[in-house]
Amino acid sequence: QVLARFGEPEGRHAFMMRVKHWAAGLGMNEAVNYSFVGNRDLDHLGLPREGRVVIMNPLTAEQDVLRTELAPGLFQNVRQNVSQGASGVRLFEVAEAFTADPASDTTVREVRHLAMVLYGSRYEESWAHADEDMDYIDIKGIVEKLFAYLGLAKPSFSMAEGHPYLAPAVAVKLADGREAGVIGRLKPALADEYLARKAVWYADVDMDLLRAESAASRPVFRQLPVYPAVKRD
Predict the structure, then answer these.
(1) pLDDT given for residue 2 in this prediction
(2) Is-contact 210 194, C-beta < 8 A?
(3) Strands 36-37 vs 65-66: parallel, antiparallel or unpaired
(4) Which residues contact 81 (CB under 8 A, 6 or more apart)?
(5) Closest CA to 169 of 158, 178, 155, 180
(6) Dihedral of the CA atoms 23, 26, 29, 34 (nearest 10)?
(7) Residue 8 Cα distances to 1, 215, 217, 228, angstroms
(8) How far apart are CA 126 and CA 192, in angstroms?
(9) What is the pLDDT averaged over residues 224-231?
(10) Average pLDDT over residues 180-184
(11) Dihedral of CA 112/117/122/126: which sign?
(12) Average pLDDT over residues 179-185
């Protein structure tokens, strides 16, 4: 069946599944959260009220609006893991974020994101490594590996001022300068809500944008050397 589809364009679902397998291969666990969150969750992170899609008949007061970002759910996942004694948390989620858009047929614009959160120890307790906490280089390296995996040029990084819940916040940009996402550290004042006593590192990238860029890229093959390499002359 795979050979029968060889050369055909990759569908959106297949692309997202491929990204999920890649993220799991890096040692992260997949989180699957509800699309419904509370206005309180979005307010806590300082996210704007404009563009929120309010649920007319919510099941609970804590799930009365569609998520505009994946961050609230993943930060709650950190809270749940920390409360159970986890020394390190490595999670990712591939899912839609929702924004009100009158121009859309459904009045709601859906964009699929890949969001990742790192917290605590870099290594598992069972491995004989020195106790180190994950840092900015860990989350930045994962984003760089994602671009390489998708066959994209290495992204550029620049400081982003005024981010509602990340400080420092760093914008992730494509080679042509378009912004594809953001990485950074959850502000310590906000991290207390999630029982975090160490740095919480977060990344969010627009997967619909990266999918379009990856589909437009073309691999280039170089001819193999005619003669064997000479290590010493």
Answers:
(1) 54
(2) no
(3) antiparallel
(4) 89, 119
(5) 158
(6) -20
(7) 12, 11, 15, 36
(8) 28
(9) 88
(10) 97
(11) negative
(12) 97
Question: What are the backbone dihedrals phi and psi of residue 35, each rounded to the nearest 5 degrees, phi first?
Answer: -75, -15
Task: Say how far apart CA 55 and CA 63 lie, in whole Å.
Answer: 8
Instruction: Give the pLDDT score at 7.
Output: 67
Whether a cis peptide bond, with omega within 30° of 0, leads into 164 is no
pTM of the shown model = 0.88
How far apart (Å, rounded) are the C-alpha atoms in residues 89 and 78?
7
pLDDT for 60 beyond 90: no
Confidence of residue 172 (pLDDT cuts 50, 70, 90): very high
The token pair at 152 is: 């994209």
Predicted local confidence at residue 233, as pLDDT: 79
Instruction: With cut-offs at 50, 70 and 90, classify the pLDDT of residue 219.
Output: confident
Torsion sign across C-alpha atoms 104, 105, 106, 111 = negative
> 3-state SS of the chain?
CCHHHCCCCCCHHHHHHHHHHHHHHCCCEECCCCCEECHHHHHHCCCCCCCCCECCCCCCHHHCEECCCCHHHHHHHHHHHHHCCCCEEEEEEEEEEEEECCCCCCCEEEEEEEEEEEEEECCCCCCCCCCCECCHHHHHHHHHHHHHHCCCCCCEEEECCCCCCEEEEEEEECCCCCEEEEEEEECHHHHHHHCCCCCEEEEEEEHHHHHHHHHHCCCCCCCCCCCCCCCCC
Considering only 17-21, 94-98, 123-127, which range has the smallest mean pLDDT? 123-127
Amino acid 52 reads R
